[in-house]
Amino acid sequence: MASKSCFILAFFIAISFSSMDIGLAARNLLQTTPSIPLPKPTLPTIPTIPTLSPFPTIPTLPQGIVPPLPPMPTLPQGNVPPLPTMPTMPTMPTIPTIPQALPPLPTLPSLPNMPSIPFMSPPPSTTTP
């Protein structure tokens, strides 16, 4: 894997050096050749657009006679049965209420006195501040 990456790196370095030589050679050629004025090409003339005659008028469409719409039908006026009544819903059970005051927390017994552990005191300083 390492030899492959080294080969690719060497390839890119060789390409970059070769392009530098080509660039320098091209620049040298551009600087040494005298500039010869090139002949200007002759352009053909652009043809003119012919004028169009005015558009013909659109003929009017014939107005036909539209027959009248038929009358709206009437709905029957028969006896309509009454809507069924909704059945009664059973009553919901009551939810017990939550007490607002919390009961007091139990008190913890006090811990016995712990004996103090003597610590080593630091050595006395030899210099005075």
TrEMBL record:
Residues 88-100, 110-119 have a biased composition (Low complexity). Residues 1-25 form the signal peptide. Residues 66-87, 120-129 have a biased composition (Pro residues). It comes from the Eukaryota. Residues 66-129 are annotated as: Disordered. Keywords: Signal. PANTHER family: PTHR48216, PTHR48216:SF1. This is Protein PELPK1-like.
